[in-house]
Amino acid sequence: MLAGLVNCSAMAALLHRFHSPSRLLAHALLTGGVNGAQKVLNKLRGVHSLFSLRSFLETLCEDEAWLDKHTQELTTKPLVCLFSDAFKTDLLCFLHLVHSWAPQDSVLSLLHCLSQEVQHKPWIWALIRQLHRDIGDEGVGEKTLLTSECVVRLKGLCERFKAPQAKGGWEAYLNEHRSVLQADSGTDLVQKKRKSEVMDLDTETDMNEPQTKRVKTDSPDIENSEGEKETVDEEAGDEKALQLYSGPERASPPEEPHEDSLSVLPEHIKAAVPLMKELLESETEWDESCMPTLKVLNECDTKQLEILCGILGLAETPEQTLPHFCSFLLALTPDLSHSAASVIIKNLLLDKVLSLTEPASRSLVTGVTSLCSRYPRPTCQALIEPVIKEGQTGSAQAELLCRLVKDCLEPHHRLLVFEMTLEGAWNEGLLSVIHALLDLKIELNEGLFSLFTNQLSSQCPQFTKSMKFAKMILTVLTKFQCHVNAACQQTLSCCISFNETFLKKSLQAALKRITL
Question: Which CATH number fits domain 202-219+230-436: 3.30.930.10, 1.10.287.70, 3.40.50.1390, 1.25.40.480?
């Protein structure tokens, strides 16, 4: 406890080196990580239109007195070097997201300070290299993000798994490193990884589960009599790998689950199925006694969870039960892994959103927004992207997506959704989503803005009389003037020439006001 008080006192002393409002930003990084810092930054920019990161970065680079515990010598170090590695990591990730308007010279000074301390910390070193690339620092930015040690280990892994027909590759590798996983099982990160990826490798034999119903065996030596079972296991693994690498596109509708599919689930999960079905079909309010039952969702790997969702019929869950169900999902500890959250969101919400023909009900909106706020990236990939790519962004879907974009997503997730909109055909509903993103003034780089203007050019012939399309171009011309170069100006001029709305003159005038 005393050590904790000392650390808190030291952190408070470091924070007092910053001037307000930079101190708020530093405190947000310490307590809320990257997301917390972004929220504070957005508020600071709203209150102080001229707020710059320069003062914040320069303070981090200032020399601070420091006592070397080994030599007992008093020396100086840049202030940023006195913070924890977690703070340094969050700081670099934060700058990666906002580097487009951060002063480049101050960022370079900060990277120089950090480079003196983290040569033997590969992850921080990789983030430093990435930030050099972000700001276009020639020479340093061209180097690989990997340390020499990482390169050697990756080459070793590639050599080990280069034979695709080799049996037991990943399973044998994970079995070799099981002692490492067990030693670190106290951390949340390892717990999530084991539950989402290697749960089947750590299933204990004391579960009283028949051997014929286990998906995989913990023993690397498999008898010849089990050859057929081994083939089935490998095919199941191949199916899982294909699902992981096929991207977030909506998969074909799953077959109706058979009783045989229950055989791949552990006994304690099968035992929870009837009660979970009863809860999902009930319209009464749930209580805390439901929590132990729902915890089995956190104990399934991806394949087991897909089967469980099919058995439970999550796609047919009544909308009025969504708020209760989602509130208990959010109360699960630890949080769902990325893959588990994606599976649940896809099965629970995707069909409901795709089938909307009128504005979403309050229950559906509550369920979608609550899960999106906690699991934004899984929601983007398992819900938003399929709706966009399937071309089913009607007015009801567009209204819901605009709400998610404005109220639930951070700037980097909004940018992810914007990139999704550039990959398919546009309709009036999708135009509303794109306009909402542009209104929030997302941070576009030169390459992405060029892709967007090219998409505008290819889509404009079908929207000659669309007011939404015209307003979207007007937003581009007023809020993204700094991105318009000569090539983009020519492209936008062609788009405006197709326009047949009363906004055409306003669009032409706005384009003329842009000086290159």
Answer: 1.25.40.480
